[in-house]
Structure formats: C-alpha cells, structure tokens
C-alpha cells in the first residue's frame, strides 16, 4: 500500500508557531484564590538552536496555572504542591521546569515545578475529564477499569490530529465513542440540535440529560497514572552526570549482553532503573556523545534517560523504571492467556508511535525488538535502548557465537550486507517485532540461523503468516519486509494504520440522537 500519509494529518514534528509577542506583561489583578502580579514571561525564541525536546514545549497561554497532580519537591530548588493548588508561572525559559509562585502563606512559595504537572486555570487541559493524547483503545481500557461507573466519561484529543476531540462514555457494558464537532466560532456540538460555546458547557449539559447519548456524563474517568516528571529533578535536567553514591541498587532485574539492569533508588526516594555496563563494552566518550542526544529525546512511548555515571567504570545509565520488564518476557509469560489481538495491535501501535517520533528526529534505533520494548503499568509500552547499539565497541559484537542472541534475524538485509542502517531498517525490525507480538515472543525463523534466514530472504522468502495472525496485520508485516527499503512504510503510516486498525468510517463513531445508540 506504499508510504501514504494519513489523510489530513498534521505534522507531528512541526514547531508550534509562537502566538506571543516576544515579551508579555500580565496585568495586575486579584481573584479570591490568588494575587497575580506584574510578571514577565520570557517567550523569546532567539539564542542557540533548541534541541528536539524543546520543539514540543507548551507555551503558557496565561500565567495562572493549576496543579493537575500533587508533587513532592526533590531538591531545595523545587516546589512541593498538591493537586488543585493554584500558582503563577514566573518563568518558562527552561523547557521542562518552570519557575512558579504559589499563593499560600506558609512554606516555600517560589521554585521550579515540572511543566507536565500543571495546566492553565480553566483550560481544557485542567479539566478532570480531559485525557490528552489518549487513543480510542486506551480510552476503552481506562474506562473499563474498576472504579468507573455507568456514565464515567472522558474527552480526548487525538495526538496525531490536533484539534480533533472525541467523547468516550462507559454505558455500564461497553464504551461508546462520539465525535465532538467544532463550530467556526470555537464552540462544540455532538448533534447540530444542541451547540455549546465551550466543552465545559457541553459536559455540564449532557451531565443532566442523555439526549441521544448512551447515558448521562456522570463522572470523569479515574486518572490512575500519574505522569513522571520530565527529569529526576530540576538539577539533573541539564547536568545529568550524577554521583553514583546517590544510587542504591535494590534488586537485579535482568542481564543483557552488555551488563546488568537493577531496580534502584535515587536519593533513597525515587525509583529508577540502573543499567550497569560491562567494563570495556563501550568508549565512555562515544557513549556520552550519544547520550547527550538521547537525553533530549522525549516522548511518552520512549524510555526516558534520566542520568548517567560515566566518570568511572562501570558506566551507569539511569532510566525510568518499567514495572513489568521486557515485552518479550511479558508476552512469553502470557502466552495467549489474557492478551489477544486488540491488545496486541495496541502494543504495536504504541511502539510505532515512539518510533514515529524517532523518525521525526531522524534518529535510528538499530536494535528494535521485543526485548528492547518495556512494559509499564496500565498497558503502557515504551521503546528502550535506542541508539545504544551504535556505541558498543566492536561493530560485529552482535555476530557472536551464540546464534540465539544475534539480532541478525531482526536486521534488514541491506543493513547486514552493507551496514546501511536507516529508519527503513528500523521499519524492517518493526515487522519482526510485530511477529514477536502476535506469536507471544516466538523466535523468528525457527530452526534457521541468522545467516541461513538471510540467505533465504535474499531469495524472496518471508516469514509465513502466523496461524493466529489476522490477514490485515500480516499485510502490514509484509510491507515492513519489502526488499526495497524506500517502499517500506514510514512509522507515521504504521502508527495510524495500527491505531485505526479496528475503525471503519461507518462503524467507529456513534451519532448522538434518540434513535441511534
Ligand atoms: P540485549 O542486551 O541483547 O539488548 P536486553 O535488552 O534484554 O538484551 P538489557 O537492556 O540489559 O538487555 O535488559 C535486561 C533486562 O532488564 C530486560 O530484559 C528487562 O527485563 C530488564 N530491564 C531493562 N531496563 C529496564 C527498565 N527500565 N525497567 C525495568 N526493567 C528493565
């Protein structure tokens, strides 16, 4: 089906246009909650070129913010606050830690807050029912969690189609979805009969009457997952070589080819994963160069690199901790007991989403496989170990004697033969990863060595359709294994194909009226 891009897709990589003047001064006024002072928001965009993570920064629209979650300050520079606390944002110069002032009279009132814990007061983002960047399948999963009731609902914004909103409602049996249509003047409606100037008004209205919906909107969906702060703390955002004595290893989680991974604590409080690299497995200088870039790669479907200890060997890599470990083991342990096709498609879609972000950054993973995808709580899947393959010493390190450990079976033929690693060789590996997902972690090309598989591939052989794999899903795998790299799909295309896998134009969204339910 080629490399077609999603209809009306909006570019994910684009820098949002700055709608502000370079300097903005807020007027001074008083509300019941808070005194807003004359403040200076620096929204200047000059200076050195910003690294990728700065591109998606949220420019504050107004300076009065509300805390979405509680946060315990981790260093003296940071503020502690409770969900619902209001604050004035004083400085947004730093992309991920904003300087804020709380209106309370006791305790520390000024300090840094993680930008993803706050939202402008009265904005859609600050509403308890707003679940930004939540896909249809994820919305279903969330609403079907225990604790939600008939009438639990959420409104979500599409990650890829900015400005498109959908309402998902639990009717006691299943989750129903409705598209919110936008009016030219900024209002919203579900049926043309009832139009609203704001989403809040729409929610309030349907909270009192069904009027064609499957039920009234009674309670926002429970928010179980609290997002991670963007860094270990404000101080490690830019200085991320940390003292190894600040780490405590608690439990060994696993062993890779290049070292061990431990569950641990940073500063005795913050859970982290600590990867210890075998002495001599890489040149620390090369690693630091790569890590510099990796640190700036930020996406909900990528494991966040927090910090490193490179001053002495063994080098440590500190990342976010994922509760359920590697996807490979997770799939093998389940082996079809509770994981079925919808969930498997969702896993693949989440990985494609992380990879689509890497694609926008022209960053090549080089070792995409189920062993390098990690599983968190609430069925969250994240891509790990991106870029690491390049810094391990010895280009042939993967071609070790033990064939089961070779990633040859994941590597595109042109990458093996000509060392030509590109985003398209990552796409090839993604096809193999899809095979691992549908087969619950089976080894690709069973009975063949990596070299034998490669020879067969060159004669046009491809992994046959696994027994339980739906035909459409297998079609996508075959596209990833196109002999011509340029004809393989982009990750952006893969992402939407997988996200929309169960949707058809006619059946996916309900119309709200008294006849159609
Ligand atoms: P290879 O070295 O061939 O890439 P691998 O990816 O399994 O193999 P590691 O990345 O060293 O090797 O990871 C070893 C194991 O540690 C993983 O399989 C996983 O179970 C666990 N692990 C790694 N990183 C984390 C993490 N951030 N959170 C939780 N568990 C992790």
Automatic annotation (TrEMBL):
Keywords: ATP-binding, Cytoplasm, Kinase, Nucleotide-binding, Phosphoprotein, SH2 domain, SH3 domain, Transferase, Tyrosine-protein kinase. Its main location: cytoplasm. It is found in: Cytoplasm. ATP binds at residue 275. Pfam families: PK_Tyr_Ser-Thr (PF07714), SH2 (PF00017), SH3_1 (PF00018). SUPFAM superfamilies: Protein kinase-like (PK-like), SH2 domain, SH3-domain. The keyword Cell inner membrane does not apply. PROSITE patterns: PROTEIN_KINASE_ATP, PROTEIN_KINASE_DOM, PROTEIN_KINASE_TYR, SH2, SH3. One of its GO terms (cellular component) is cytoplasm. Its EC number is 2.7.10.2. It catalyses: L-tyrosyl-[protein] + ATP = O-phospho-L-tyrosyl-[protein] + ADP + H(+). One of its GO terms (molecular function) is ATP binding. One of its GO terms (biological process) is cell differentiation. Belongs to the protein kinase superfamily. Tyr protein kinase family. This is Tyrosine-protein kinase. It comes from Xenopus laevis. The gene is frk.L.
């Amino acid at each position: 089906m080629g490399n077609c891009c999603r209809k009306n897709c909006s570019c994910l990589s684009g820098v949002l246009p700055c709608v502000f003047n370079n300097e903005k001064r807020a007027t001074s006024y008083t509300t019941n909650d808070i005194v807003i002072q004359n403040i200076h928001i620096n929204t200047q965009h000059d200076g050195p070129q910003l690294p990728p993570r700065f591109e998606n920064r949220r420019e504050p629209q107004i300076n009065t913010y509300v805390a979405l979650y509680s946060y315990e300050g981790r260093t003296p520079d940071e503020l502690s606050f409770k969900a619902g606390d209001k604050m004035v944002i004083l400085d947004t110069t730093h992309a991920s830690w904003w300087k804020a002032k709380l209106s309370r009279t006791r305790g520390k009132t000024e300090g840094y807050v993680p930008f993803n814990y706050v939202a402008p007061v009265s904005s859609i983002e600050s509403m308890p029912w707003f679940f930004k960047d939540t896909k249809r399948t994820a919305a279903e999963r969330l609403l079907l969690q225990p604790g939600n009731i008939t009438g639990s609902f959420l409104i979500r914004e599409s990650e890829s189609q900015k400005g498109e909103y959908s309402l998902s409602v639990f009717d006691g049996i299943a989750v129903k979805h409705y598209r919110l249509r936008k009016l030219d003047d900024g209002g919203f409606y579900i049926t043309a009969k009832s139009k609203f100037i704001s989403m809040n008004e729409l929610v309030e209205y349907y909270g009192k009457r069904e009027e064609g919906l499957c039920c009234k909107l009674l309670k926002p969906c429970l928010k179980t997952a609290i997002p991670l702060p963007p860094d270990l703390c404000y101080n490690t955002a830019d200085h991320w070589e940390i003292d190894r004595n600040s780490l405590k290893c608690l439990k060994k989680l696993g062993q890779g080819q290049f070292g061990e991974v431990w569950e641990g604590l940073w500063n005795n409080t913050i859970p982290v994963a600590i990867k210890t690299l075998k002495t001599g497995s890489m040149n620390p200088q090369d690693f630091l160069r790569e890590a510099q870039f990796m640190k700036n790669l930020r996406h909900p479907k990528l494991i966040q690199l927090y910090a490193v200890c490179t001053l002495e060997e063994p080098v440590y890599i500190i990342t976010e901790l994922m509760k359920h470990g590697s996807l490979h083991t997770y799939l093998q342990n389940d082996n079809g007991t509770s994981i079925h096709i919808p969930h498997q498609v969702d896993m693949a879609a989440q990985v494609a989403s992380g990879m689509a972000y890497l694609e926008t950054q022209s960053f090549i993973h080089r070792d995409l496989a189920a062993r390098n995808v990690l599983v968190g709580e609430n069925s969250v899947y994240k891509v790990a170990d991106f870029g690491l393959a390049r810094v391990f010493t010895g280009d042939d390190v993967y071609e070790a004697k033990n064939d089961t450990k070779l990633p040859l079976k994941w590597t595109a033929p042109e990458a093996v033969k000509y060392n030509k690693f590109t985003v398209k060789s990552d796409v090839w590996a993604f096809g193999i990863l899809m095979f691992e997902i549908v087969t619950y972690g089976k080894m690709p090309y069973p009975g063949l060595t990596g070299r034998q598989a490669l020879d067969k591939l060159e004669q046009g052989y491809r992994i046959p359709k696994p027994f339980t794999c739906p035909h459409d899903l297998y079609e996508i795998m075959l596209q990833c294994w196109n002999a011509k790299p340029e004809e393989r799909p982009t990750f952006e295309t893969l992402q939407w194909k997988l996200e929309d896998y169960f949707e058809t134009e006619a059946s996916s969204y309900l119309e709200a009226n008294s006849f159609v339910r």
